[in-house]
């Protein structure tokens, strides 16, 4: 079957879906990528994946530019004889559905999060709900990354119960993300290091992370706060100068953006994400797979990655004081108990979040689609 993977950045396809693409190719499918052009498009091409640039505009809403993206997608679907679309991210899902109107193109949708219109409800939220309802009604299969989002879409009548299925996030490659092996007898630093990996947006809980860092550093706790992420939307997050100021003041250690976060996870003692809402955050899955305790907010997506008290702690959202309390408890734990939490994180990933579960679900959906055609 001729398949198109549609997402608003080639970065997403490169970092999150290459193993799936390889499994689809191995099952006999012909896979192309339709994505926003960036440096990762050439990386995919170098690895033998056909990538066709589609000018997605990130968070843009200009009607002419957005309509041009839908038309470009439609032309690509027709030109390449695509039979089924695997779509991701809010714009990828909605625009692929609009582009496929009147074409014999099935759609398998992955709802990785509800998007800003649902996280911060506003006057446009009802319109977005209606658009989702219309677009997803045509989908062959709708995958959700957490039960909260699935229940919300079913409650609103956007999807039917038999149409949707919950996946364990994007899954995590347990052969790629493995716990670091510390040399026997190696001296450990007296400082405990926590790491936050996220796009640098306020809705990721960045302000709460910074405030907790200020509080605990002022108390003299042996705790270091590291931060990895891209500064790509200053209107929704801090400016680079603000981040540099936090770094210079010793509040956090800003490590920039990293393609491969495994060395940074290996150097950390815990992974933190105080986000306001997620699909299932990949950073937590990868950190947990590498045997790190997880400290995250008790919100959809994040709480899927934490069994409170077993492999980490859940924090009340938007409350830096509660985050600071949980980090104090983390620092107070003896090393054997922190290690036990890390082992529990790895075990949770094995039980619930193995990427092979996600790949199998896609292969099953395509077999069912092929049978029905």
What would you say this structure looks like, in words?
With 373 residues, the protein is of the alpha/beta class. It contains 15 helices and 13 strands. It has helices at residues 10-16, 18-26, 39-46, 63-79, 90-99, 116-119, 125-136, 147-155, 206-218, 240-248, 262-266, 282-289, 320-332, 335-352, 355-372, and strands at residues 2-7, 30-35, 51-53, 84-87, 106-111, 141-144, 164-166, 192-197, 223-228, 253-254, 270-273, 294-297, 312-315. The protein has a 7-stranded parallel sheet with strand order 3-2-1-4-5-6-7, sandwiched between helices. Helix 9 links the parallel strand 8 (192-197) and strand 9. Helix 2 packs across helix 15 (355-372) and helix 4 (63-79) crosses helix 5 (90-99). The longest helix is centred in the last third of the chain and has 18 residues, at 335-352. The radius of gyration is 21 Å and the shape is globular.
Topology of this structure?
Layout: E1 2-7, H1 10-16, H2 18-26, E2 30-35, H3 39-46, E3 51-53, H4 63-79, E4 84-87, H5 90-99, E5 106-111, H6 116-119, H7 125-136, E6 141-144, H8 147-155, E7 164-166, E8 192-197, H9 206-218, E9 223-228, H10 240-248, E10 253-254, H11 262-266, E11 270-273, H12 282-289, E12 294-297, E13 312-315, H13 320-332, H14 335-352, H15 355-372
Parallel strand pairs: 1-2, 1-4, 2-3, 4-5, 5-6, 6-7, 8-9, 8-11, 9-10, 11-12, 12-13
Helix pairs in contact: 1-3, 2-15, 4-5, 5-7, 9-13, 12-14
């Amino acid at each position: 079957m001729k398949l198109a993977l549609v997402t608003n950045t080639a970065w997403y396809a490169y970092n999150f879906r290459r193993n799936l693409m390889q499994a689809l190719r191995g099952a006999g499918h012909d896979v192309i990528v339709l994505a926003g052009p960036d440096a990762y498009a050439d990386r995919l091409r170098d690895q033998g994946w056909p990538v066709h640039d589609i000018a997605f505009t990130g968070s843009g809403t200009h009607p002419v530019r957005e309509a041009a993206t839908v038309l470009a997608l439609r032309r690509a679907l027709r030109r390449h004889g695509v039979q089924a679309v695997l779509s991701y991210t809010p714009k990828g899902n909605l625009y692929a559905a609009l582009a496929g109107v009147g074409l014999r193109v099935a759609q398998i949708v992955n709802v990785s999060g509800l998007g800003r219109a649902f996280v911060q409800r506003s006057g446009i939220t009802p319109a977005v709900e209606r658009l989702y309802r219309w677009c997803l009604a045509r989908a062959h299969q709708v995958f959700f990354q957490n039960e909260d989002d699935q229940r919300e879409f079913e409650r609103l009548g956007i999807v039917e119960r038999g149409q949707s299925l919950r996946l364990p996030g994007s899954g995590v490659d347990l052969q790629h993300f493995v716990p670091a092996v510390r040399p026997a007898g190696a001296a450990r630093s007296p400082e405990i290091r926590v790491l936050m990996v996220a796009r640098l947006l306020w809705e990721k809980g960045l302000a709460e992370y910074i405030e907790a860092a200020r509080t605990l550093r002022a108390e003299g706790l042996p705790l270091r706060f590291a931060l990895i992420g891209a500064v790509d939307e200053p209107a929704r997050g801090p400016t680079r100068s603000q981040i540099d100021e936090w770094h210079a003041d010793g509040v956090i250690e800003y490590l920039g953006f990293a393609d491969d976060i495994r060395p940074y996870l290996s150097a950390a003692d815990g992974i933190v994400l105080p986000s306001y809402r997620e699909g299932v955050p990949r950073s937590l899955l990868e950190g947990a797979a590498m045997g790190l305790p997880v400290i995250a907010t008790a919100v959809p997506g994040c709480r899927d990655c934490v069994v409170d008290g077993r492999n980490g702690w859940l924090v009340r959202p938007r409350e830096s004081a509660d985050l600071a309390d949980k980090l104090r408890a983390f620092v107070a734990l003896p090393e054997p108990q922190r290690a036990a939490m890390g082992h529990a994180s790895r075990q949770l990933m094995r039980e619930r979040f193995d990427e092979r579960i996600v790949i199998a679900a896609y292969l099953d959906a395509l077999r069912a689609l092929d049978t029905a055609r």
